[in-house]
Fold:
Amino acid sequence: MTDARAARAYGTLEAVEGRPALRFELLLAHPVDRVWRAISDPAELECFFPGAAEWTPATGETLDVGGMSMEVTRVEPPHLLEWTFDGQPQSFVLTPRGHGCQLVFTHVIDDLPAAQTAAGWETYLSRLEPHLAGGHLSEDEAHTTWLEIHDLYADRFGVDPEPGRRWAAQNLPGGDRGASA
Structure:
């Protein structure tokens, strides 16, 4: 495994209140207030996050997002944003670190496929830093390494990689790119 590959698949699979959850920690070279705007302002969120919602966000706010229910459960600007999407808790926690901050994203996944979901989140989160820096990483560009990242997660989580590979072949542009040898 090369150093570049070792730097990927940084998410972990943990238990949150007895439920399986993915956790991603990122150190960002941007202050908490700047990252807060990126994760809470709908116009900024849609630059990197899938299914960005038109939210305020405010505790108790309920939205229909693509036919699924989303409820904002806790907002403590500029450090904590929690919501439940289709019954699955998700959250952003921001903590100052020097001149930048640490972002922790957590998603309780229940019966979602862990490796596929982790690869998806890592792909979307990879778009955050370029956005914060004033650039843009397209969804297609971000997905070029999805399959490689997926296979790393499948290995780490001890799950069969074939369902994720089939999903990628059917759903991602160039779905077989990045396939492991």
In short: Residues 114-125 form the longest helix (12 residues). Helices lie at 3-6, 32-40, 42-45, 114-125, 128-132, 139-142, 146-157, 162-171.
